[in-house]
Amino acid sequence: MRHFLSLSDAGGDAIAAMLNDALERKQARAGWPKGRADADAPLAGRVLAMIFEKNSTRTRVSFDMAIRQLGGQSIVMEAGQMQLGRGETVADTARVLSGYVDAIMIRTDDHAKLEEMAAHASVPVINGLTDESHPCQIMADLLTVVESGRQLPGLKVAWLGDGNNVLASIVEAAALLHFDVVAACPQGFQPEEGAIVRASGRARVVADPREAVADADVVVTDTWISMGQAQAETKLRAMMPYQVDAALMAAAKPGAAFLHCLPAHRGEEVTPEVIDGPQSLIWQEAENRLHAQKSVLRWCFGQIG
Ligand code: CP
Ligand code: NVA
Fold this sequence. Notes:
Rossmann fold; four-stranded parallel sheet; globular; binds phosphoric acid mono(formamide)ester; binds norvaline
């Protein structure tokens, strides 16, 4: 049984195979009505349960459409409306849901809850974002980069701003797929040291935003205040020099791509001219959540890799 809690659960070869599968499936159904199932309906009869402990637009809708396009069905639940929200344990919830559905996706504040779900479920469990990581987002980001005609090995990715869950998954991907990440983060908001060490030399943290973007093929940022974090003026002030503006994009490789997992805060982590400008791939990136996750689901059911 395969859980997708982190990118390492799949490994570099399977991720590459998933990206190929996603590209092929996306092309094969181009122009079709969104609700029509893929011709082979490879997950017909399968049901995915989704549990949300935090808000979501993209993850919720893209997973729902992903399982439908694969021929399956979904059940979407808010944790607060489940007995989970009244203290039923994650372990008991995992055991019960395993008797009803074929896979579980959970978005939770605490990574330990995801691990507990996986430890007690007898069906695949997928990480739909935790405070530590967001592997499904990075699958979509990798797909977007490949689709733009760039090769992953040898690529240079610049990260600006908060050393958060999304960065942690990019760093993990770098080691698995042989590209380099340079993250410019202010003092006190750097990623966890262990994540950088595990990247085996593929990731480093700098203080200077210009150093991060120098020669970068892809420039990435995210909200400065993640879900569950307090809105702190001191943090916003510390982040301001790391805002991705036109001058910073001009210091990257000519034509460098701009990515942002969304939701975005224009005027904070990125200026409107960048996020809504010609180098921004954010709409393809958001759509690719759907295509990438179809391949993640297929991998979980042993159909890829
Ligand atoms: N990028 C992302 O995960 O978006 P949602 O929070 O809307 O799911
Ligand atoms: N870092 C953000 C990502 C949202 C998709 C958060 O955790 O809120």
